[in-house]
Design brief:
The protein is of the alpha/beta class. Helix content is 39%, strand content 15%. The protein has helices at residues 16-27, 43-55, 68-73, 78-86, 109-122, 143-146, 169-184; strands at 3-6, 33-36, 61-67, 94-98, 127-131, 153-155. Strands 1-2-3-4-5-6 form a six-stranded parallel sheet. The longest helix has 16 residues, at 169-184. The chain is globular and about 40 Å long.
Length: 191
C-alpha cells in the first residue's frame, strides 16, 4: 500500500487536515492513506480527513505512529499509551509503535510486547505494527512476538541506510528477504 508519512513541526498541527487533503488531491488514486508521525494529533482533524474521504467514496488507511515523543508525553507507560489510543478508536486503522523514530535505536522486544498487549486487550480491530532499530541483522528480535501477534506489521528505516544516510539497496534487499522468510514461518499464514 502507498502511504504518505505525514509529519509537521510542533505548533503547526492546525494545518494538518488541509495538508492531508492537499496531498491526497495531488496523489489521487495512487494514495492509499497516511502514516501520521505526529505525537497525539488532534483527533478532530484526523476524523475530518476520514469523513471527507468517505464522503467521496475513498477508503483511506490511517496509521498512527506512536513514537518517542508520544510515549514520553504519557510517561512511557504501556497502559497510558493504550488508554490514549482509546481516543483514536474508530478513527485510525493501525498503530505503529516506534520508540526509535527512524534513528535506528535498538529494538526492545519485551517493551514492544508490553505495549502491544495493552493495545490488543483494548482494541480487537486495530492493526498493530512495530518499528525501531529493525533491519536485516535484527529481524530475529521480532520473531518472539509473532506467535502472540501473528498479524503484526513491521517497519524499518534507519537500519536500511548507509553512512551517508542514503538507502542501502543491499541491506534493504536482505531485510525484505529476511522478513519474507520470518513471516512465511508463521503457522497458517501466507506472505
Amino acid at each position: 500500500i502507498n502511504l504518505v508519512h505525514y509529519s509537521t513541526e510542533e505548533g503547526e498541527e492546525s494545518s494538518m487536515l488541509a495538508d492531508m487533503l492537499r496531498i491526497h488531491g495531488l496523489a489521487g488514486t495512487n494514495l492509499h492513506g497516511f502514516q501520521i508521525n505526529v505525537a497525539w494529533p488532534e483527533i478532530r482533524q484526523v476524523d475530518d480527513y476520514r469523513l471527507a474521504m468517505e464522503a467521496n467514496e475513498w477508503k483511506s488507511r490511517l496509521v498512527l505512529q506512536v513514537g518517542r515523543k508520544a510515549m514520553f508525553q504519557v510517561g512511557d507507560i504501556p497502559e497510558r499509551i493504550a488508554e490514549m489510543l482509546r481516543h483514536y478508536h474508530g478513527v485510525v486503522d493501525d498503530v505503529l509503535i516506534d520508540p526509535s523514530g527512524g534513528l535506528g535505536q535498538p529494538f526492545d522486544t519485551e517493551r514492544a510486547r508490553a505495549i502491544l498487549r495493552e493495545i490488543r486487550d483494548r482494541f480487537w480491530d486495530l492493526g498493530l505494527g512495530v518499528a525501531g532499530g529493525l533491519g536485516p541483522d535484527t529481524l530475529d528480535l521480532v520473531a518472539p512476538l509473532l506467535e502472540e501477534f501473528p498479524d503484526l506489521s513491521i517497519d524499518a528505516q534507519g537500519q536500511l541506510r548507509n553512512s551517508d544516510h542514503a538507502l542501502d539497496l543491499d541491506r534493504t534487499k536482505r531485510y525484505i528477504q529476511g522478513a519474507l522468510q520470518l513471516f512465511s514461518q508463521r503457522p497458517g499464514k501466507q506472505v
